[in-house]
Specification:
Strand content: 15-25%
Number of helices: 11
Helix content: 25-40%
Largest sheet: 7 strands, mixed
Radius of gyration: 24 Å
CATH class of the largest domain: Alpha Beta
Shape: globular
Number of strands: 21
Number of domains: 3
CATH architecture of the largest domain: 3-Layer(bba) Sandwich
Structural class: alpha/beta
CATH topology of the largest domain: FAD/NAD(P)-binding domain
């Protein structure tokens, strides 16, 4: 036993911090945690979980409409925003309790309050100075809004889950996961939904076919897209509405502006100035392959390091960290072939390389692509299209990337990700018997390459 009160002090109890704390405790370490916001971090409280619940809520309008083609009588259901928010809050509260229980059951000591680093082995929470052999920073990220006149009039993904009423007109600014998802949520819930992005096409790091398909499909569902569009300033009108002014001289009137232009590592007021922890220009903490910072006793993982900003990645990093530090099983995090989904409508599911990345890295590739109307919509009357795409190394036959835009794309790609992780070839896909009739079977029945 060391002379310190704890072997590990974790700052931040999001998905990565909680996993690191409880697994380290399970491996015999004396662990403490601290949090000054909410148990479970961004994902549970103002991220993945409530957002997915809102996606479900917003899709019902389309389901009601599609049902008519299957013989159901037309209905005009009423939507009640306060009911959704109240039920969402109850579920989040339940999850908060589960996360607290995970720490309690693991024997972790938790401190409510802001933790600040005093030196390499001491943390201050409220008025208490706590000694620890190692410190792990897992504080995640925080929405970033650029500086411009009227930026105090906008909301972010932190506030959107607590709006007292659903605004009739919305403008989402941004071009990533959150922006595209919320533009669709607002449209599905009946808002006059607009999305503004400064570039020519959103979802910058996704496959080009995916980006084009999503732009076409969400426009069909009522999202008004404004590309090459930059907000210069915003003014509040006498009636409470917002007048948005763009750099090209155009204007737009709305009731709510939500900024989803990125998240910055949450490193403010941590006390990093008291230790030798190097950060990048955006504040991201620099770590080595074992999550150690330039201060030997201080570590960091998850979104605060700005590597791959995904909840499952932070959890996986936490497992590598805990095993390496307290189970004497050093390892390295594998960041290849990480599957991800965007819960726009229709969904995006993707794993592996984009076509552009594959051509750059491997030269000659074969492209298998299929665009079709799903079986369900032969009766629903919907014109929604599904895209499925395989990217294959021509020399080795190895599947390098799989991309999908369509209902339940995330659920389908999760299974495909296992195949890519195992190194599956196109021949393996071809020899796999499909499940009929499903959309997913298309991935094992595409035989003709459409490009080289």
């Amino acid at each position: 036993m060391s002379d310190y009160e704890f072997d590990l002090f974790v700052i931040g109890v999001g998905s990565g911090g909680v996993r690191a704390a409880r697994m380290s405790a399970a491996y015999g370490a004396r662990v403490a945690t601290a949090e000054d916001k909410y148990m479970g971090g961004t994902c549970v409280n103002v991220g993945c979980v409530p957002k997915k619940l809102m996606v479900y809520a917003s899709h019902y309008a389309e389901d009601f409409e599609n049902a008519q083609g299957f013989g159901w009588s037309p209905v005009k259901p009423d939507f009640d925003w306060p009911t959704l928010i109240s039920n969402k809050d109850q579920e989040i509260s339940r999850l908060n309790g589960i996360y607290q229980g995970l720490l309690d059951n693991a024997g972790v000591t938790h401190f409510d309050g802001r933790a600040r680093i005093k030196d390499a082995h001491h943390v201050v929470v409220r008025d208490r100075v706590i000694s620890t052999e190692k410190i792990l920073i897992a504080t995640g990220g925080w929405p970033s809004v650029p500086h411009f006149p009227g930026n105090d009039l906008v909301i972010t993904s932190n506030e959107v889950f607590h709006l007292p009423t659903l605004p009739p007109r919305t403008l989402v600014v941004g071009g990533g996961y959150i922006a595209v998802e919320f533009a669709g949520i607002f449209a599905g819930l009946g808002c006059d939904s607009h999305l503004s992005y400064r570039g020519p096409l959103f979802l910058r790091n996704f496959d080009e076919d995916v980006r084009q398909t999503v732009a076409t499909e969400i426009a069909k569902k009522g999202v008004n897209l404004h590309f090459n569009s930059t907000v210069s300033h915003i003014e509040k009108q006498l009636d409470g509405s917002l007048q948005v002014f763009f750099a090209d001289g155009s204007t737009h009137e709305t009731d709510c502006v939500m900024y989803a232009t990125g998240r910055a590592p949450a490193v403010d007021d941590l006390g990093l100035e008291h230790v030798n922890v190097n950060c990048r220009d955006n504040g991201a903490i620099i770590v080595d392959d074992h999550f150690r910072t330039s201060e030997p006793s201080i570590f960091a993982l998850g979104d605060v390091t700005d590597r791959v900003q995904l909840t499952p990645v932070a959890i996986a990093e936490a497992m590598v960290f805990a095993r390496g530090q307290f189970l004497q099983q050093p390892g390295r995090m594998d960041y290849t072939n990480i599957a991800t989904a965007v819960f726009c409508q229709p969904n995006i599911g993707t794993v592996g390389l984009t076509e552009h990345q594959a051509r750059d890295a491997h030269g000659e590739v074969d492209i298998y692509r299929s665009t079709f109307r799903a079986m369900k919509h032969t009766l629903s009357g919907s014109d929604e299209k599904t895209l499925m795409k395989l990217i294959v190394d021509r020399q080795t036959d190895k599947v390098l990337g799989v991309h999908m835009v369509g209902p339940e794309a995330g659920e389908i790609i999760q299974g495909i990700a296992i195949a890519l992780k195992a190194g599956a070839t196109k021949a393996v896909f071809d020899s796999t018997i499909g499940i009929h009739p499903t959309t997913a079977e298309e991935f094992v029945t595409m035989r003709e390459a459409v490009g080289d």
